[in-house]
Amino acid sequence: MTQWQDYISIKKSKQARRYSLRLNHKLRRIDLVVPHRSSETRALAFAAQYQDWIEDKIAALPCAIPFAQGETIPLFDIPHRINIQYEEARKSTKITLQNGIIHVITNQTDPSLRIERYLKKYAKDVLTTMVHEKAMLLGKRVNQVNIRDTSSRWGSCSCEGNIALSWRLMFAPIETTDYVIAHEVAHLKHLDHSPKFWKLCESLSDDYKIGKKWIKDQGHTLMRYGTAI
Ligand SMILES: [Zn+2]
User: Hey, where are the domains in the chain?
Assistant: First the structure.
C-alpha cells in the first residue's frame, strides 16, 4: 500500500519562512515547501501532522486520463476516443482527428508525448482563432497568442497586447473556454478588474456566469489529462 510519505515532494525555497503543503494537481502529489535550511527529517515531521489531509487530497483527485489506447477525452466539448495503431515499419507517427476519433499510427510503443504535442498544436490553432474573433468584436489588435501549461493561471494579458492561455482549456466545457478568452480579450481595453471591465467581459462571453464558476470550481480537473511528468 502506498504510504502518505510517497506522495510528498520536498521543495526547498529561499523565500519560504515556514512549512506549507500544496496539492500539485498535475503531478498528483503534495509539494511540501520548506525553508532553505530545513532538514528532511524536520520537513517530514511537519507533514506527518497533516497525514489525513494529505491522504484525503490525494484520494479526492479526479482519475487521471492518460493519452492512451481507448481513452476518451473531450476536445472543445466533443468527446474523442484515442485509437492507436502500431506499425513497426513506420518512420514517424501520424495523427489525425476525425469523427470523434484521434487516429494515431505509430512505431512507438508509448506515443503519449507525441499525442500531447499534437493536441497542444491543435489547441493553439483553435484558441488563437477564438481570440482573434473576440478581439475583432472589440476592434482591438492582438499582438501574440501564446500557449502555456500553467496550473494556476488559465490566461493572462499583457499591456503590449500579448495573450497567453493554457492549452488545457481545450478540455474544458466550451462556455468556460469562451469565458476565459473573453476575460483576456476584455483586458485589451481595460487592464484592471473594474466594473467597466466586467461589463465588457460579460458582453464578450456566451455564458459568463457558468464559465466563470466552472473555471473557479473545476479548473483544477483540467490537469487530469495526459502524462504526469
Ligand atoms: Zn483578469
Answer: 4-59, 72-111, 117-224
Instruction: Calculate how far, in angstroms, residue 89's C-alpha sits from the geometric centre of ligand 1.
Output: 49
Strands of the sheet with 155-157, listed across from one edge: 144-148, 162-166, 155-157
Q: How far away, in angstroms, is 212 Cα from ligand 1 center?
A: 11
* Rounded distance between C-alpha atoms, residue 22 and residue 29, angstroms: 9
CATH topology for 117-224 is Zincin-like (3.30.2010)
The Å distance, Cα 194 to ligand 1 centre, comes to: 10
- The pLDDT of residue 150 is 82
- Centre of ligand 1 to C-alpha 193, Å, is 6
What residues form DSSP beta bridges with 103?
Answer: 83, 96
pLDDT of residue 1: 62
What is the structure's pLDDT at 127?
98
The Cα–Cα gap between 162 and 143 comes to 5
Residue 192 Cα to ligand 1 middle (Å): 7
Distance 200 CA to ligand 1 centre (A): 12
